[in-house]
Amino acid sequence: MDDAGVASIGCLAHLLQLVVKAGLESQRAVEDAVSVCRKIATHFSHSTLAKERLAEIQRSIPGLEQHAIIQVHVFAGPFLCECQRMAKVPSGVEN
């Protein structure tokens, strides 16, 4: 670690997280997608009816695990995994 000028693995991981975050934030499409996801999470966190309807829809799709919609600050790994999981959902939520 000394050769790389990094004090510890934790520092290296944090530095990598900051670089990836800056890279993602520099992409307008990523910022737009995150903004839409935040609006969706806010809607479901404020509406009991919407949460119940989402649970019904999730139960009606075979093979789809039921997930809660929450808004959290994450680093790139889980964020990208969540984006990939959301892309696999066969249909959107419709009223």
Task: Summarize the model shown.
The protein has 95 residues and is mostly helical. The protein has helices at residues 9-25, 28-46, 48-60, 76-88. Helix 2 (28-46) packs across helix 3.
Structure keywords:
4 helices, 65% helix, 95 residues, mainly alpha
What would you report as the Rg, rounded to the nearest angstrom?
17 Å
The H/E string reads HHHH
Average pLDDT taken over every residue: 75
Shape: elongated
Based on helices, strands and strand pairing, what is the structural class? mainly alpha
Number of helices: 4
The level of helicity is: 55-70%
Strand percentage lies at under 5%
- The multimeric state of the shown protein is single chain
Distance between the termini: 54 Å
How many strand segments? Answer: 0
Low-confidence stretches: none
